[in-house]
Amino acid sequence: MDAELARILDGIGPRLRALRHDRGLTLEALAEETGISVSTLSRVESGVRRPTLDLLIPLARAHRVALDQLVAAPATGDPRVHLRPVRRDRGSVLVPLTQYPGRVQVFKQVLARREPRLVTHAGYEWLYVLAGELRLVLGGRETVLRPGEVAEFDTAEPHWFGPAGAEPVEILHLFGPHGDQAVVRTGAGDGNGNGNGNGNGG
What is the mean pLDDT of the chain? Predict the structure, then answer.
């Protein structure tokens, strides 16, 4: 194994451990979520076992990060950002703006029309509308955000967001584990389309 490959593989375990700690998960909880045994997870995180794709794919899904973020840390010393848009179903586009697993993740999203489906998960989200109108559903409450307006919420609350009408909406989307929250908070249902709540709608 060449030195570069060894360096990449050696870095995966610590990143996985940092992701799990940032999410406040025990090995037992992650094992239940991924179907990977506690002993295997522990050995991968400690570097005793080399990670394989059949381990990394469910871990990337569980931690909500791209597979390449687990495999290779961002290059240092180069200020250029190489954006990789990801096209989703029904015309939606996701552009990751950060590549730091375990920290606050920043995305630019263009969301096409879709049916509301409330979800819950661990974490915290912050949404800023760039263009169009965003419909945000938090529990039993709804609000519409317009360009320049912001909402943030705890993802433990059932939530969904998408275009308020037939046209797509463009947003800046921050997602972080518990404890990582944006500073700005707007009020829910104040009649001005501002949202307050306490959750990835995706």
Answer: 78
Both tokens assigned to 146: 């317009």
SS3 state at 19: helix
Per-residue pLDDT reduced to its tens digit, 137-178: 998 899 999 999 999 999 889 999 999 998 999 999 888 765
Report the pLDDT value the prediction gives residue 30, as an integer from 0 to 100.
92
Instruction: Give DSSP secondary structure letters for 163-182.
Output: ESSSS-EEEEEEEE-TT---
Instruction: For residue 139, give the DSSP letter.
Output: T
Give the end-to-end CA distance of the chain in Å, rounded to a whole number. 40
Spatial contact of 96 and 149, defined as CB atoms under 8 Å apart: no
Helices (runs of H) and strands (runs of E) counted in the chain: 5, 9
Instruction: Render the burial of 111-121: b for 16+ CB within 10 Å, e for the rest.
Output: bbbeeeeeeee
pTM passes above 0.70: no
Q: Give the Cα-Cα-Cα angle 196, 199, 202 (nearest 5 degrees).
A: 115
